[in-house]
Amino acid sequence: MKFFIKSITLGFATSLALFNVSVADDRPNILWIVSEDNGARWLGCYGNPAKPTPTLDKLAAEGFRYERCYSSIPVCAPQRFTWLTGINAISAGTQGMRSGVQIPDFIRYYPEIFQDIGYYTSKGKDAKTDYNHRSNRSGNDSWNEPKKLEWDVLKQKQPFMHVINTHSTHESRVFGAYNPNKHTAQKAGNLAAYHPDLPGIHFVYEKYNEAHRKMDAEVKSWLTELEQSGLAESTIVIYSSDHGGVLPRSKRFLYNSGTHCPLIVRIPEKYKKLYPASKPGDTVKELVSFTDFPKTWLNLGGATKDQVEQMQGRSFLGKETEPNPEFVYSFRNRMDDRLDMVRSVRDTEFLYICNYMPFAPVGQFLPYLFNSQAMRDWKQHDLDGKTDAVTSRFFKQPRAIDELYLYEKDYDNVKNLAADSANTERIKAMRAALRKWQLEIFDSGFIPEDEMGQQAAKYELTVYDFVRKPELYPLEQYIDMADKSLELDPKNLGCFLEALNTPFVGNRYWATLGILNLSFAGDSIKDNKVLNAMQTLLEKSTESQVVKAYAAWVIVRSGNDKQGQEALDFLKNLSHKTYSFRTVLNVLDWMDPKHSSPVMLDIYLNGKHSGDSARVITNHLISQASAEVAELVEQHSKAVNSITNHEKRLKNYSQKPENISAEKIAKQTTQSQAELARATAVEKELRAKLEAKN
């Protein structure tokens, strides 16, 4: 039949489309509902004692609840890229939050493949468009309908694949200050072991439960509309979040709270051959990765192996499923302007986390995260010396290189078993599995993002193509050197010094980090050979600016006052002209503030940076500089904000908005001009005082 239809050519647009129409009634519609930022444990059916999700709990009873489903990366935009293409973001260089990295034209988007097999594709009701990459065609344009949810249209266009995305549980929904005079802070029944027992934290827990109540009501309305449209019996309903979250130490991090996600699938009885367990209401314990999703949804629609060849996940639902995996993997890199590199691997018992940059505190200041009252209160609690061994660990520097958790018995991941010699072989085996996976998917993280951009551009390649050329990106060598950098073995020093002379920037980068890690381990780096090697890196005009920034930090940590000051001066000059200001900024923020704060003040007064970078600089000075400088910076930043606000108001008034009378505009313009003049005078005075301190 299939061969015969393919052989017919007269009067048909495409043979494949004709075939798909002929079997349309046999294939399910797919409705995928995605909520943002919420880990599995926020749903009642996954154990939240507040039970804020009765609709989703009912859906789980009518369908199948997956107990071990994990996001590929615990933040939205890189995860959306992974979903759109079926390719792990680290395999294409798109792992950095809002990366804008170019991908090859031959990479296909899963809605396009759905259309190839005869499906109508649409997304609506707050559909997301940020796919974290650049391409010669827009990911948003890959849908037949990228904005609307129209049940009548879907009914006419069967089979369809429709995605609904709701913002109701987004991180921003828990922002807002806690006021004990206005708000009650009901004790959270699911307070994580790593969170201190503080009213502001309980307040945010309840705000997030309320966000789930709102989201659950939305889901109820959509499922009701599906039923009323007469499509429920022919539509597979899938519900998931886009990653874990959203209280501090969840979203963005590779612990259970950041990666363990809800996945519920309701399959109509007419498709019961697709059931993943014996009957609706059952739970499924197999390991599932978010990377599996697009390949699986396409498998439900009947896509062939050739059509999903680019995809790196596996099909866990459909007529032709793939074997259960032994492990699933997740990754973390740059989050906004804060740098990091972490990889995890888990089996059905253990979660292993490898921190490739242990000198970066887990809880480093990230502006968006600190919009949360819970994060601010937790940090202040730590600064006040009130946290204990568990609740303080988030802020420690350096952090553990290896983390190992019995992740279902220790759901909050607070009992690190990595130091127990009984687990040495287990860690070795999980690291070996991680290495195998990194080589299979071409983990692009072994050259830092900004440097990778330079290297790929040099050869006029996309990152995706660059990392698949071993003569340019010798990944095995890089993993070996990275592993050595984490051994904290002084015997590796000779290897590191030798690697600094190799032509591959990844080897020089990891060798420099290996020396830096030794300094945190208490091993002396005052050896003249080390200092001379680091100085040579700074003086070499062709050396990576990323490598130079870390080399300067090594020199500062050596304790040599003269060379240390010269290295700080180097970083100050580099900050004014570099392709990787983020690296310079992060190094300075991680550094002992007695060394870095004067440089940060110079950058602050230079005033070239805005957004998150400016907030990191300002936070560093207010929280870590001398009391006098901190007070001046706090006052100055308020004056700058006042100037900005009044300038915006004056611009708005100049456009003569119709909803404000001319008389009122004139009055408010005069008032804003006066306030702007006052703020400008204050700013000038404070700047003069700060410049005197610089």
Write the layout of secondary structure elements.
Blueprint: H1 2-7, H2 15-22, E1 29-35, H3 54-62, E2 64-66, E3 69-70, H4 76-85, E4 101-102, H5 110-116, E5 120-124, E6 133-134, H6 151-156, E7 160-166, H7 199-228, E8 235-241, H8 256-259, E9 263-266, E10 283-284, E11 288-289, H9 293-301, E12 328-332, E13 342-346, E14 350-355, H10 373-383, E15 402-406, H11 424-441, H12 449-458, H13 463-466, H14 475-485, H15 493-499, H16 505-520, H17 528-539, H18 545-557, H19 561-576, H20 581-590, H21 593-606, H22 611-624, H23 627-654, H24 662-693
Parallel strand pairs: 1-7, 1-8, 2-10, 3-11, 4-6, 5-7
Antiparallel strand pairs: 2-9, 8-9, 12-13, 13-14, 14-15
Helix pairs in contact: 7-10, 14-16, 15-16, 16-18, 17-18, 18-19, 18-20, 19-20, 19-21, 20-21, 21-22, 22-23, 23-24
Offer a quick outline of the entry.
The chain has 694 residues and is an alpha/beta fold. The protein contains 24 helices and 15 strands.
